[in-house]
Protein 1
Amino acid sequence: MNTLEKSRARRDRAEGVSRGKMPRYGKNGSARSRWRIIPMTLGFLIILIGLCIAAVHIPALLYRDEQVSGQTAYTIRPDETGVRNLLEYVRDHPGDDFDSDGLINSEETAYGTDPRNPDSDGDGVSDYAEIYLYNTRPVEKDSQLESVMAERLDALGIRYSDPWKVHDVVLWADDLSSRSRGTLIPTLRGYRFTSFSGWTQFPGTVYAYRMQDGCHIPLEYREAENAWRVDAADQDVEVILYAEKLPAARLLTAFGSRYFMEDGTVSAILDLVLPEAHSFLTCREIVLQDLEDLEIYATVTGTEMPDTDRTDLSRFGECTNEFSSLTDVYSSVLSGRPVPVSLQSPSGGEVLCLVYGFTEYGDLLIADSAGKTTDASGNPWMLEIIERAAITIDQNGEIRQREYFDFEGLGFSSARGDKIHFIPAE
Ligand SMILES: [Ca+2]
Ligand SMILES: [Ca+2]
Ligand SMILES: [Ca+2]
């Protein structure tokens, strides 16, 4: 192309002329620019793509987790005299301190606190410390723990962002609240974190996941620091550790149909542009193990109820929900001895039954006093166990880690104030 042809080509392009094609002219005779057409087409395309993206992502944005209400029916009929026994036993022992928090039962009744829970409102300050050390309300959560912790860290010259260690795990908190309340407890599969958001480092070489809706979700990882991201500020997170990354593929769902894709460019792009769930088009990484029918292994022993003295009402004065009591129950089952247990609800009454086994996740298998182990549909009676840790200021103003467990099952739930007491062998 010589110089003349080049400049003509430039002019033609400017006027919207292409070779062999008639230019189009407007009313005033000047060539109509194609620049007005291109933005329209482009605009239309952008709107179309935008609509597609919105259509795929809006259902996921609007999705809200529905709280599924727990099982409420008592599957083993409770003894209703337990309600009266429970109330009377506390009333008949006004000078005792059932939960060893420094407040005697009559004081607990007067302040409206729970005589079998050292921190009734669960805000990390024991009932006694709220009343006698800080003058805060023992039945209403407050942020006294953060204030006390901030003062103590200051005095020691420690910043909240400095790392610290709990059970061999190194923690770096995002904020003062995570530094004050954040903690963890070992579980049979890894660790459960409470009130903590930040980075963590586990002993040894591990690959860390959390479970969500029965699926393994890998934690975010920073290689330079060998640190894993944990977000458990609002909700406890159980981190499950493996020696290496679990084999995975990508799961694409389209209008209810599921397709598996090997790792590759296409699957990586789809993973990037599509939401992970709650839409008619989704794509996410999935651990192959999550697709298999899960078999849960359990350790069991005999189901014959040992002699227990039902007239001994002292079981209504104790709540053995300390973590150490749970590990004692596991050891007892392992050595072939089932453990009688009393489940108590202030409104429903008492079920006196037997722990005859536990699953690999730590849940307890329950038999009734006749040795029956399943409900009418053949499902095993089970108490789901959730290991808990909480940073708590005790009656001496000391900051301690409290390790206990929550339970849920057979119509009982510690979250609703129900109690558990393992009865020692005669
Ligand atoms: Ca007490
Ligand atoms: Ca409290
Ligand atoms: Ca309080």
Protein 2
Amino acid sequence: MPPVSSRPGGCWGRPDLPAPVGRRTALGLIGGTLAAARAAGTSIALPPLELTASRLSQGGWARGIARGGLVLDLDGMPVPTDSSGRFLIAFDRDAPATARLHGKAANGWETALPLAIAPRAWQIEQIDAPLRPPSLPNEEFLRIRKDELARIAAARALVTGAQGWAQAMIRPAPGRISGRFGAQRVYRGEPGSYHTGLDLAAASGTPILCPADGVVILAAAAPFTLEGKLLMVDHGMGLSSAFLHCSAHRVGLGEAVCQGQAIAEVGMTGRATGPHLHWGLRWREARLDPLLFLPDEG
Ligand SMILES: [Zn+2]
């Protein structure tokens, strides 16, 4: 696993000064003093709390490091750190414009990073027709669907210790982007549900490559009603991928998988009008834009 990216230049020798203006204004000590940093047990050369890489926008993410044993929360929600203090946070498609990452040391010293989350211009399509009420699903469908959703929820509750969350991701399939994350149709002012993943149009049987290291947390042998042959991979720290509509899986439940490994094949099982990979990414309950995890494309 690559180390957390090193910081260019040694500009943190005076942590009692505000963070330098420019590219790194979001980083560093906010409201801290040298004495406080010392009291928190942190090195005077390094900020107690900083982001090391980020895409601070709706559907985006940030990685960082907390030093001196800081206990973190994001707007009050606990954020775990690994043994080196590294962490991941991410922002839902509809995340508000600001967030606050807060750290507290054992001795009560506190620091915080206010985060500005850039809004996105989601692709919105106005439809001059009423939102069609769904045809009444029959009891059999409801029973099956309830079971499928329970299996997805159970998979997402698994904690695997996977380390892929710290990697830059790779594209899981070639092909044209046939559906963007967040796209939404609005029917005479009434919004329909938005698209929860990235669609990549590729031929049936095209290998799906794992975008980052992980552990398989669900491999549906029988197709789910909507997702089809669904494969889910946990990347650790609350981050997980879902691969929908597969024609086949090449890995099984509990298997550790590596970035670049062929884990499944593109198909059109479940509700799909043509062969494609729908790749969904979530951090806890937040739905994320997979494109923002691809350094070459996002
Ligand atoms: Zn899709």
Protein 3
Amino acid sequence: MAGTITIKVRRNGPYRVDGEGVTIIDWQGQKYAAKDAKAIISWGACASYGCVQAAKPNPTRATPVHKVITDKPIIKVPGCPPIAEVMTGVITYMLTFDRLPELDRQGRPAMFYGQRIHDKCYRRPHFDAGQFVEEWDDENARKGYCLYKMGCKGPTTYNACSTVRWNEGTSFPIQSGHGCIGMPPFPP
Ligand code: SF4
């Protein structure tokens, strides 16, 4: 996308410290950097939602990007971090088609966040068959049964882990035997 400036804004910086030792976020620099951008991509859960440092009492007044830059289209690409191929895929789409990707109702690219982990999980046949891991390292775990009873959050998590996977498609948490922990978190 010719002329587009893609900006990654970290929620906690840059900082300056006043005489009383209170950390103050300087967002003016971020707004200046964004002024000629066609759109802003919020990389990661912090930029997208605020994440743990924005929790009360939020002493640093940590703020997600869309609450600071309000006059540009915001594309949220949450994750901690987002999957590398998802990040490059979003940029590649914009450069190739010269338009923003379709977004879901939370402002995320639907092509990567439109389905639940559960929808594409290779253990799904075991879920449908009622075959579950009951304890870590039990016989069912060795058979690769569904991790729902071990706390897997795949049924309520929208991300591309079960399709794109991680480390150039090598694996993802469920494939390593641990249930999904629900990243990115649902926005507050
Ligand atoms: S392991 Fe998790 S995501 Fe996979 S089928 Fe079971 S509950 Fe769904």
Protein 4
Amino acid sequence: MKKPWIGFVVIAWLWAMPTLAMDFKVVFEDAAGVGFNSTEPFAGHGANRASTLGEARRNVLFRAIDMVRSQVHGDGIIVWRVRFNERAGYLAVTLGPAFQEFTSALSPEQNVAKFPFEHGRHYPGPLMLALTSLDSSYADDSGEDATTNFSAYGAYYGYDTNAPTHSFIAVVMHELVHVLGFTDIKCLGNCIPAPVSKPTHFSKYVFGEAKPVDGMSLAELNALYLSRDKLWFTGSAHTQQAAKTLLSGGHTNGSLHLHAEAPYDGQNGSHFAPQMFPAQLMYSAGANTTDFGMAAYVLCDIGWCAGKGEVQDLVVSVATNPMLSNEPSLLSATLENASDYAMTKPELLLQLPASVQLSGLAQGCALEAMSASQQQLRCQLDSLGARQKHRFDATLRAAKGSYALYGRASIKSYAVDPIGMNNIVDVTLSVTDPVPLTVNLGADVEAVAGTDVRLTAQLAGGSGSYQLQWQQTAGPTVSLTQQSNSISFVAPEVSSTTKLTFKVTASDGRQSQTAEVTVTVTPKAKPVEPQPTPPPTPTPPPAPTPPPAPAPQPSPPVQPASSGGAGHGMVWLLLLAVWRNRRRWR
Ligand SMILES: [Zn+2]
């Protein structure tokens, strides 16, 4: 059997090496050049920038695995064989998971702490692995847990479902839920002869027309599977409540309708009925969604949640302030419990290049080396209350460039998280050189004594947040009033033209720049002394105003006839009077 992508297997595995956690060992079974090994050029979908179709498919597969790993906690390794292989009638089909009969003798404490296993029942191998790491007989990573055949059905290879076609990531998520044990029970009923068979652990939650299928004869089961929509999954009180809250169709008193249409298509016990609404990941034909939705509750009931079976939604977000080359910058990662139950041991892992320096780590965080080029920030909390947030801060410093940051948040306490997209952060940190700070006071200013003068600093670049310091550097001191980016003052009384200079120093905390401007103050024009109340003389004596200039003798004869020089003189007198008035009332 060819394993041309063993390198990818190792990479996927390394991810979780530092801790004990559920991991997937993927075995690619396609021949060279096809399926996951296709070399067909790929143009990129969404954030998936692969260059070949095979690489694009593998990227999506590992992204889906990461989402599931962040949503379902467990210990151990699941061996998953995958290939592209059209099988008539299936868009994708998973064979398995392998079931194992539970025969181990766990101590009562172990059994209660983990999950109440029943002797003689058959449990999905991955679940056994996840929950019985105490017992080495189940920690077998040499065999296979499940095999999945994919087809070209999910032809969109972004990490989202924002495409007109079906997204491959939704297909992979769907199949992974089968791998975790959301499976058909029919085969076990057939394959394991009664009474040895207690057909799977899953089946004890499955009812047909209100009767538990556990214990039904094969004939009864067959009849039930041929009935339409008479097969229900009835889980915990949490499941029943969620069904009423989250679904507008496809449930009866909180019991989820399972698909029970055809006896041999493998859909009956392992998928929700088509009338379930809104569409669910485990809908018969595979809804185009990456949320576990109600499947989270089913997974919880069949063992992936310990104890009380709460389904908990953990959300992670990451923010940085603008990162300048080799300057400290703040990285904030926030974990949010978006559910109504307190969660225990939420954890955040952030992978980033080793060349990014991290310091000032928040309490609960530690830095781990992954390789020469990668490091990982691990932050843990003991608990996070319902609807609470917790922020982890760190100081980042890096040279100019782009840095990929990838992370996932998970709950370490056997909870199932219904929404996987919000457990993943995938951002590019962009570190730039600081933009030069500039400050400008404009052209020099002229002002008449006694008038208001305003100087405004024009600022650009830097961080965008500025502090200004104004200073008068020459001339008679004036009193400055500062307002935002401006100062104002009254031009002082001067007896002759006087220059005042002002300097502003602008700073954004990192850079500072100065600018200067000169204000030239001219004396007030001599005001016309108010006449000592000129008596209202009725007829001011004809002012000894300059007589109308006698027309130059050789006056150009071209002058058109007009009202003559006297008329002009009157106009000037009037203008002068107006002008004087203006001066007086100024
Ligand atoms: Zn399916």
